[in-house]
Each structure stands twice: as structure tokens, then as C-alpha cells.
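Q: Convert this sequence to C-alpha cells.
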Amino acid sequence: MRAMPHLQLLPGAIATILAEAADTKTLTENDRYGLMAAILDESLAEEDRRAIDRLLRSVRRGQLEIA
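A:
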């Protein structure tokens, strides 16, 4: 079994991903890695968790494309 690489979220990354996704209607591979790092961060702020939930709902509804 391979070990999971250590991922660290950059400050402001969630807000940046949210803004870019709203503009382009797309989540890139880098965005997805950023979201994965955020979800694994136990100290993630509740506001950021809600933003991630909004992004995931948008994907499920077909409002965002996965690139």
C-alpha cells in the first residue's frame, strides 16, 4: 500500500478555487488536489468547509465541469 503524500493548503486557496470555478465553470486537476488537501486539513475553518461543500454540490448538479 502506498503512503499518501503530504499535502499542504496554501493560505487563501479555497477562496481562489471558488472564484476561479465561478468564473470558468470548471474544476481543474490542481483545484481538485487543493480541495483534497483542504479536506484532509483538520484545522480547516468552517467557512472553507462550507465553500468546499458548495463546490461539490455544483459539480453534482452539473453546474461545474471537471477538467
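The chain has one domain: 13-66.
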